Amino acid sequence: MTPDDAGPRIRRIVHVDMDAFYASVEQRDNPELRGKPVAVGGGQRGVVAAASYEARPFGVRSAMPSMRARRLCPDLIFVKPRFEVYRAVSQQIRAIFADYTPLIEPLSLDEAYLDLTDHLGGRTATRIAQEIRLRIREATRLTASAGVSYNKFLAKLASDQRKPDGLFVIPPEAGPDFVQSLPIGRFHGIGPATAARMEAHGIRTGADLAQQSLEFLSARFGKSGIYYWNIARGIDNREVRPDRIRKSIGAENTFFEDLRDIAAARAELEPLADKVWRHALRNDTTGRTVTLKVKYGDFRQITRARSLSAPVESREQILTIACDLLGPVFADPHGVRLLGITLSALETAGAEPAPRQLGLFDQA
């Protein structure tokens, strides 16, 4: 296995990310919310789907349990999500993108990659990104941040650099040094669990990651090892895929020590359910099938799934199903090394349910 090289062709990739999208739409449409800490989502046992910039200094973040958010910010105003409105605004924004390139890869309602390499029309990618941001503001009265670089990984990093309402460029000559200056927790594709595993090996920054051999990373992180080896050097050859269709939404975690207590295992399912439901909300999506993945200490792996007659409606429903599926398969002398939750059979939230003859069932 040989690492990818950057290749001779320099691409022009833009990542556009709306600023606190759901919350900003609510503040735009309701003047009484402007300048105040706002969270979209809530409910007694719900989670925050989006938080306004006024709420963030208090520590309020998306995917946070609403009860914790209220404790951190007693003046926090919760607003019920209006996905039909967010979807309509998203369509306005994507229509603007389409004026510049057909190569658009939406990641959710509020962010997308654009490949401008063959669609510059005599302009720079930076100038086009600025024009797109101005047009979004004029059309929607909302702000967007953009990152411009020569690959998707760096463009996404760049869009976070000057939020909100910012533009940042990482040119090819600066890419590797920029990556190596960052903590690994900032890397897209390295979540908290993987970051903790890396830190256990002394890998805390991009520079630390770049010092590791491909063999070392592959041995400890499997197929992801080559991806980590590449991004530490500013290399990412993934294409912008306009026809990307998400078939499932999932999250998993590998534990430092194998789990042998079912109460602890159920507790570990909670952040996984949070993450899956957060991604579902961001994509205005829900699903009918919840799948539990279990890997035991001896590396045997099983899945158990439950399909529903109607789409799941909450994070709590995902968690309840996952816990139910876990009970019969948890006991094993080798303990549990990994747990994962996946939501599939996806459909747009609020869509008319498709007819279904099967009711609730479990499958191996």
Automatic annotation (TrEMBL):
- Give the record's GO CC terms: cytosol
Q: Which InterPro entries match?
A: DNA/RNA_pol_sf, DNA_pol_Y-fam_lit_finger_sf, DNA_pol_Y-fam_little_finger, DNA_polymerase-Y, DNApol_IV, PolY_HhH_motif, Rev_trsase/Diguanyl_cyclase, UmuC
Broadest EC class?
A: transferase
- For the ligand (Mg(2+)), the binding residues are D17, D110
Looking up Gene3D superfamilies in the UniProt record yields:
3.30.70.270, 3.40.1170.60, 5' to 3' exonuclease, C-terminal subdomain, DNA polymerase, Y-family, little finger domain
Superkingdom, taxonomy of origin = Bacteria
- Cofactor entry: Mg(2+)
Instruction: Copy out the cofactor comment.
Output: Binds 2 magnesium ions per subunit.
EC no.? 2.7.7.7
Entry annotation: catalytic residues: E111
Name the GO terms of the biological process aspect: DNA repair; DNA-templated DNA replication; error-prone translesion synthesis; SOS response
Per the entry, what this protein does is: Poorly processive, error-prone DNA polymerase involved in untargeted mutagenesis. Copies undamaged DNA at stalled replication forks, which arise in vivo from mismatched or misaligned primer ends. These misaligned primers can be extended by PolIV. Exhibits no 3'-5' exonuclease (proofreading) activity. May be involved in translesional synthesis, in conjunction with the beta clamp from PolIII.
The UniProt entry, under HAMAP family, shows:
DNApol_IV (MF_01113)
Q: What is this protein called?
A: DNA polymerase IV
UniProt source species = Paracoccus shanxieyensis
